[in-house]
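Query structure, 262 tokens:
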């Protein structure tokens, strides 16, 4: 099948026009008409992921984060980005990214994370993207039954394989309503508060955000990679619904670049 055939279901579910202005989603390296037999799905395109693709004979890498956000002025191996692009070109491997368009697509990343945490009655937290019905960022939903807040945080840590959870003062002893946003979601704290969340789960909170949570909201920072690892499963699911007989590999080298000393 062609590269364009494999990414077509992604572009139908998460059209590129949904991406934010700063983003660089879409086909970044390679020929859309190239014939391929398999694809490797990851969060970030790294040299280790490229080596994995070469070993598997994959003709396409589909990532969540774009390998390149800015144009390359030269390819001389000075950065991992340049080296990854050179390896991809040398081995005829196409690279495609589905990033903020997948974040804000109907039923996208935050809904997938909510499903992993078994939230019920999920709704958009911010329906600000009106370019497509149902598009927006974050979700708000309910737990199947109220639980002590610390028990909920431990459950999040275990279920998502989180190395460390940073959280604000536990001003809600019991949690029943949860807001979440994959990736850097600090800007949506007030949306979570207005939606009546007991806990807001996201990543990349700053120091003052933990103070701003104040008396009526608990924020939990689970890490950027951890919040978005679900992209691999979601991308595979979207493609397999349309193309059942194509070889998709979930990268074993898609690992967190952040290490924790605990």
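Result returned for the query:
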């Amino acid at each position: 099948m062609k590269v364009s055939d494999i990414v077509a279901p992604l572009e139908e579910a998460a059209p590129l026009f949904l991406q934010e202005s700063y983003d660089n989603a879409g086909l970044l390296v390679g020929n859309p008409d190239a014939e391929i037999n398999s694809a490797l799905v990851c969060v970030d395109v790294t040299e280790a992921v490229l080596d994995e693709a070469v070993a598997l004979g994959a003709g396409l890498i589909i990532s969540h984060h774009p390998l390149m956000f800015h144009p390359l002025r030269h390819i001389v191996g000075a950065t991992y980005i340049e080296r990854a692009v050179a390896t991809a070109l040398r081995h005829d491997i196409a690279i495609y990214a589905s990033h903020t368009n997948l974040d804000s697509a109907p039923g996208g990343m935050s809904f997938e994370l909510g499903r992993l945490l078994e939230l019920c009655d999920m709704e958009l937290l911010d329906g600000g993207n009106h370019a497509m019905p149902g598009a927006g960022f974050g979700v708000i939903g309910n737990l199947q039954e109220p639980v002590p807040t610390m028990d909920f945080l431990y459950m999040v840590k275990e279920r998502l394989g989180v190395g460390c959870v940073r959280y604000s003062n536990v001003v809600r002893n019991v949690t029943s309503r949860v807001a979440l946003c994959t990736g850097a979601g600090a800007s949506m704290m007030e949306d979570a508060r207005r939606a009546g969340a007991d806990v807001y789960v996201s990543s990349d909170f700053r120091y003052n955000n933990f103070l701003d949570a104040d008396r009526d909201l608990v924020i939990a920072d689970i890490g950027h990679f951890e919040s978005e690892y679900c992209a691999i499963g979601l991308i595979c699911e979207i493609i397999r619904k349309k193309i059942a007989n194509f070889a998709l590999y979930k990268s074993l080298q898609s690992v967190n670049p952040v290490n924790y000393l605990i």
